Amino acid sequence: MKKILQYFVILLFSFSTVAQNEIKLSNLQCEMLVNPLGIDVLQPRLSWQIITDKSEVEQTTYQILVASSAEKLASNNADLWDSGKVESNASVNVIYAGKKLNGKDEAYWKVKISTNRGETQWSEIAYWSMGILTYADWKSTRWIGYNQLFPGDSVSQFSKLSARYIRKQIDLNKNVKKAKVYIMGMGLYELYINGEKIGNYVLAPVPTDYTKNVKYNVFDVTSQLKQGENVLGTILGNGRFFAMRQEYKPYKIKSFGFPKMALQLDIEYEDGTSETIKTDETWKFTPNGPIRSNNEYDGEVYDARKEITNWNNVGFDDENWLNLTWVEEPGGFPEAQMTPNMKVMGEVKPISIAATKTGSYILDMGQNMVGWLQLKVKGNSGDKVTMKFAESLKEDGSLYIANLRDARVTDEYILKGEGEEIWEPKFIYHGFRFVEVSGYNYKPAITDFVGKVVYDDMETTGSFECSNPTMNQIFKNAYWGIRGNYKGMPIDCPQRNERQPWLGDRTTGAYGESFIFDNQTLYAKWLDDIKFSQTLDGGIPDVAPAFWRYYGDGVTWQGAYIKVADMLYNQFADENVIKNHYPYMKKWMAYMEANYLKNDLMDKDKYGDWCVPPESLEIIRSQDPTRLTDGEVLSSAFYYHLLQIMKKFAHIINATENDISHYDDLSERIKMAFNKKYLNTSTFSYANNTVTANVLPLAFGMVPEELKQKVFQNMVHEVEVTKQGHVSTGVVGIQFLMRTLTENGRGDLAYKLASNKTYPSWGYMVENGATTIWELWNGNTADPEMNSQNHVMLLGDLLVWYYENMAGIKSNPDYPGFKQIIMKPDFKAGLNYVNASYKSIHGLIKSHWKQNKSKLSWNITIPVNTSALVYLPTANASKVKINKDRLDKSSENYKTEEDRLVLELKSGTYSININ
């Protein structure tokens, strides 16, 4: 049976213009946003970008050719698909509609477009190949492993297991024309051929619930193989498969067994014959390599004295190595990994090194980061260097580790004693700013250490700078926090013994993140993780993949499933995630309705408005009932909101009228019951009048129209007067606060919240030395049980507000994926300038404005094949110049809305000046 996933391949082309009225292809570049080798999507979606210095360029037609070889495509022999000339302005997510593709088939494609300014030539050739599509094709490739502990290994709360070094020598008696390797290495792997590491990834593959689905990676290894003897080598680390907390609290923590792998190497020879090399019992291994332990919570131990020279190359004697055995499969279905692996994405050099009284040294990286430390050291054989990691220091200058719980976060390197030695770990990561280094018999130089920044291989797509330094530092802190918590899935924190993909942390957070990082494939993969974790009766966990067995049946946490899908649709025009996940979302909505809807209100909530700023700086959770929002208020309002999104989804996929009418009917009943029980028409407040209790019905459109302004003014009083212009919401309320204030005319108050430096605020974190976002508003003073200094959940909708409301870069919901951009900055909020950019799927969007009392200048860039609604803060067209021409003299393409002019502009770069 064919396995079809919802992921897709996007092939982006760059077109540039030459010569007067023609648009031709020049310096074409194909950018693969996912690995084009071995996808298992039978109908991939194809996209391209048009880049030109001309204005008002719109695509009118496209023609796509797809062929089974580059040679055929070069001669326009499209034996797989010729779309013909299609009258359409679609340049993203064009679905392949050619011949059925079988496993391992190859496809080469190109595109030609027409525009209102001319026709392009054929693009350069791009490529994808199909993966292994059937279970039967994998079945003949056996899983191999060795389910046994060796000396030095242990299974406990602090499990230890040495890495397994695996090799297979093969003899190829012909010249190789083409070769691809397909590998599943659990929990983590590195692959080598003839001593050369394949790929520039780290910590591969991405984590899943291995009992539900297992990701495989594909590599073209033609250039690494040669006629004659070759050696395939792998190192298997533990990852989440083994040794996070193996067999510790089995009622809570899933474990999967010993490391194992399945690999097949497909070789095509120049004479037309082929051969497949597969994992079997002839592969050999040793547990006696230098990696003595690798545990994500506790660190890596490396004994350089045990390094095995040339183990992964021809000529090595493996007579004393053990044979691997056939072992049971993990249980999950093999799937092509359609999101990139992690990589070392940057380096951080320490800013200081200081000796301690005990003879160790404290490194300050200057930035709370995620990854590991590379060291340079000299010493005698058997000397040991120990590195312990932390986010902050105690007053006496020693590491503060109480907030790490039982994570030992320690790497050890044992020297071989052969001159200068350079080392970094392979199968772990740490969240840290400070490192205590001990074991040196001399004072190390600061240049002996380099921090390696590790996260998913994705492009940074957004930039933001404004006139407020505090807001700029908050943006930088958010950037570092988000990137550090991308680990093949979005995790909550990278430092303590948790590091879990909590749903509630990303309900709105994923939306803001999408402006800074190209996180589309990461979150598409995560929706699958959620789907695979759904119970047969419809329940969804708090953490997905469900490495922790937490099924709390909340709405505000589990609602991330629907909210993230909505983000992918709005930001990336991805309808497939809705089509593929709608049945499971509908099942969960029905599950919650059947089990927890009482008197038309949702009475199930687990976490409340998590992390409300408490009344005391020393406590984690507020005990003051006036600060806390009733769980029924949260879950009922949020469920109403999700019903509106489900109705939208139903229209997108043409679901039955029964679905739509059910969502409408249930929404109306919930709104009536909610207002009847919780709306006080005398005080114009909801429930106990917390900001969260009021902002949710305002944001979701639940407030009766005639009372909306009064409820809003009451909420403003709570923020501005009662809370003295400070945040008082937790994880739920903060997701909607900034936009609700701004969209109802109080962008100045939102600006005050964003620029505050006193507690509780994001600026308070900055003022107290934060370089990422804290888990708690009082994360520098609260009890250490829960004060991670690198969380992103409290960002709420702050980043969305930065881009949409301050910069004016927003996708029109009616034209998703930034096909039409809404450019409506709040110029009166309090900023003097904003300079922001966002690389959308259609191209680069820029918004750079600055103002003084008498003048506003605004430079914008609108990508080719899109348009923008541009809102100007004046109703007088004679005061406006666009590209030095007066608006009232040069254009009729504007209208007046209240006190604003609204322009509809096509693609191009514009300089707007208003006096």
CATH class of the largest domain: Mainly Alpha
**Strand percentage, roughly?**
25-35%
- Principal-axes geometry comes out as globular
Distance between the termini: 66 Å
CATH topology of the largest domain: Glycosyltransferase
Overall pLDDT level: 94
Description:
This protein is an alpha+beta fold and 915 residues long. The chain has five domains: 11-129, Immunoglobulin-like; 135-339, Jelly Rolls; 343-456, Galactose-binding domain-like (Jelly Rolls); 462-807, Glycosyltransferase (Alpha/alpha barrel); 811-914, Maltose phosphorylase, domain 3 (Sandwich), CATH 2.60.420. Strands 21, 22, 26, 27, 28, 29, 32, 33, 34 and 35 form a ten-stranded mixed beta sheet that branches. Strands 36, 41, 42, 43, 44, 45, 46, 47, 48 and 49 form a ten-stranded mixed beta sheet that branches. Helix 5 (520-533) packs antiparallel against helix 6 and helix 5 packs parallel to helix 7. The longest helix is centred in the C-terminal third of the chain and has 22 residues, at 631-652. The model is unreliable at 1-33 (pLDDT under 50).
